[in-house]
Fold this protein.
Amino acid sequence: MDVDLNTSIFSVFGRNKSGKSYFIKNAIIPKYDCLVFDPNGEYDQSQADVYRPRSREYPSMALENEEFLGFVKKNKGSWDLVIWDEADDIFPLNRPLFSRMANLKGKYRHDEWGNLGIGFACRRPAQLYTDFSELSHYIVTFGSKGANDRKKLNDISEGLGDAAQQLSNHEYIIVYPDQTFEKMPPLKVKKI
């Protein structure tokens, strides 16, 4: 993936075992200094700074994210990217954002967060707080089979949801800032 995620909002979508986490670990984290909000404990602390929340339930995890964002803001400039894994559990559709996250969402109008890129990873685009997918400069989507996810992706870019339903595991599509998209070669997954 030859894009610059610095100062960008990006989203990564995909079903379980589709390649989403592997992509983040192997295509994003090695290129940037990252801080990952990691509810499931699946990111290696030797590759990125990792924050593991105490709670996995909404709204407790979203409230804890407010503390996390205070830490991020206090240490502005320490990371290129902050990535929220399982973002739809922290920022679900049809739920209000807490104050610091709402402030960060508006960061491209206000420079108080520095040159921080922010990323959201989750299985289902239809369940993520709408602004995050719609404001994303880049979207990476792996296979998606749900009707609501197909509609959401088609709303973002015409034909995207239909194309995502045709993907096999480890195949993905990248959506660019102008809303055009292209199918990328499958990830080469190392066998363990």
Observations:
- Strands lie at 9-13, 34-37, 49-51, 81-85, 117-122, 138-141, 172-175, 181-184.
- The first helix runs from residue 20 to 28.
- The domain at 9-184 is CATH 3.40.50.300 (Rossmann fold).
- The helical segments are 20-28, 60-74, 87-90, 99-105, 130-134, 147-156, 160-164.
